[in-house]
């Protein structure tokens, strides 16, 4: 607890926070053995000797499906370390349902609540769509806040730092991948801005993929969508730069992310698939036959959503694996795959650097056409 307090106070001093404020929940990144390595495992085992979280705390995806890792081709030594990481979190009282969409599966902060969330896509969703408040926490900072039950009061906890800095006038998009690519283009152009979108009406799936893409290509941690996100109507847009994004920008983003041709893995679910997306994919594939030349296929989702969707899971499993607890980025796919196709701009962004992959960026319909 002392170490956690030291970390929280050090962060508060760096950012000139005036005090600590109580939080209602935390979400932790730094779960996959691939990303945190031996050093991370040692740190967590040390902390778990006597530290316990004080608030509802959830975990990001791990490096493998915790039940079916053998089928994923994960090596025994990796699996044992990954399971030790989960055990350490469990000991600290963390809910070990590893997903980057915990707001779908039970950790959904209410508007105005202060929380400490890591995972850039999830924290942006929580700030923007749910109206709760969190800074862009790192894994250790979020864990320390969860142990103390408090976080420093600075940055995005302050109203004045949540106001839009640029207006994006976007054409209406209808495919979920378009929202991902729009997010990518905006994040790439404006970095850490707070965009205010006009002209689009994404549903919660569009919002989650847009949030993920903007956080990956830029470092957007909060955004507003006119008539959609909760605080959009109270924003003052006077004097802000206005920039138009159209189908041409989406096309360019897609082309710039595509670096390969023949995927040996098709992976969707970045961020993790919602129930609605599971249903949509199952309806696209139901009644069809798997193509004989189909590459390996992963539908990445949370264990909870998989449990909620038994019929859809049965359909999807005829074409590939409904993989839980992990994703195409934090799993060690580089040991078995060279080229991955996905509809997520965030995944396209990270696949080359974190997984040594060539990338094919394509919408759901095109990806499903490659497998059925
Ligand atoms: Fe989630 Fe992995 Fe994408 S953690 S947002 S599915 S990179």
Keywords:
alpha/beta, four-stranded parallel sheet, 372 residues, 13 helices, globular
List the helices and strands and how they pair.
Elements: H1 2-14, E1 20-22, E2 25-28, H2 33-47, E3 56-59, H3 76-91, E4 116-117, H4 120-130, H5 139-148, E5 150-152, E6 166-170, H6 176-190, E7 195-198, H7 204-217, E8 224-225, E9 241-245, H8 247-257, E10 265-273, H9 275-285, E11 296-301, H10 303-308, H11 310-316, E12 321-324, E13 339-342, H12 345-355, E14 358-361, H13 364-369
Parallel strand pairs: 2-3, 2-4, 6-7, 6-9, 7-8, 10-11, 10-13, 11-12, 13-14
Antiparallel strand pairs: 1-5
This protein binds FE3-S4 cluster.
- The helicity comes to 25-40%
According to DSSP, the number of beta strands is 14
Distance between the termini: 53 Å
Strand order of the largest sheet: 12-11-10-13-14
* Major β-sheet annotation: 5 strands, parallel
Please state the structural category. alpha/beta
Could you tell me which ligands this complex binds, including any ions or cofactors? Answer: FE3-S4 cluster
Characterization of the model:
The protein is of the alpha/beta class and 372 residues long. Helices cover 39% and strands 16% of the residues. The chain has 13 helices and 14 strands. The strands form four sheets. Strands 12-11-10-13-14 form a five-stranded parallel sheet, with helices on both faces. It is globular and about 60 Å long. The model has no long low-confidence stretch (mean pLDDT 97). Bound molecules: FE3-S4 cluster (F3S). FE3-S4 cluster binds at residues 60-61, 100, 121, 212, 270-272, 300, 327, 329-330, 346-347.
């Amino acid at each position: 607890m002392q170490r956690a307090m030291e970390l929280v106070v050090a962060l508060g001093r760096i950012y000139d926070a005036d005090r600590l404020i109580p939080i209602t929940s935390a979400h932790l990144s730094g779960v996959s053995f691939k990303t945190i390595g031996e050093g991370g495992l040692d740190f967590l085992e040390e902390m778990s000797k006597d530290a316990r979280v004080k608030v509802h705390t959830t975990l990001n995806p791990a490096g493998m499906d915790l039940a079916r890792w053998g089928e994923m081709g994960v090596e025994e030594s990796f699996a044992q370390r990954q399971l030790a990481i989960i055990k350490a979190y469990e000991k600290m009282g963390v809910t070990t349902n590893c997903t980057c969409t915990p707001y779908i599966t039970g950790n959904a902060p209410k508007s105005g609540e202060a929380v400490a969330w890591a995972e850039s896509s999830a924290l942006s969703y929580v700030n923007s769509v749910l109206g709760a408040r969190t800074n862009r926490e790192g894994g250790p900072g979020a864990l320390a806040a969860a142990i103390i039950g408090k976080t420093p009061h600075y940055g995005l906890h302050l109203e004045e730092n949540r106001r839009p800095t640029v207006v994006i006038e976007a054409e209406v998009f209808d495919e979920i991948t378009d929202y991902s690519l729009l997010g990518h283009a905006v994040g790439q152009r404006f970095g850490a801005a707070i965009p205010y979108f006009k002209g689009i009406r994404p549903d919660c799936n569009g919002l989650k993929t847009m949030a993920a893409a903007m956080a990956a290509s830029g470092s957007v941690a909060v955004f507003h969508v006119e008539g959609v996100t909760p605080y959009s109507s109270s924003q003052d847009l006077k004097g802000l730069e206005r920039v138009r994004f159209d189908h041409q920008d989406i096309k360019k983003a897609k082309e710039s992310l595509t670096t390969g041709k023949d995927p040996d893995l098709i992976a969707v679910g970045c961020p993790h698939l919602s129930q609605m997306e599971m249903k949509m994919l199952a309806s696209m594939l139901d009644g069809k036959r798997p193509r004989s030349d189909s590459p390996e296929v992963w539908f990445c989702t949370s264990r909870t959503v998989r449990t909620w969707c038994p019929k859809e899971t049965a359909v999807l499993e005829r074409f590939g694996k409904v993989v839980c607890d992990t994703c195409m980025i934090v799993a060690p796919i580089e040991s078995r795959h060279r080229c991955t196709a996905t509809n997520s701009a965030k995944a396209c962004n990270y696949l080359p650097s974190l997984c040594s992959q060539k990338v094919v960026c394509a919408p759901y319909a095109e990806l499903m056409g490659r497998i059925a």
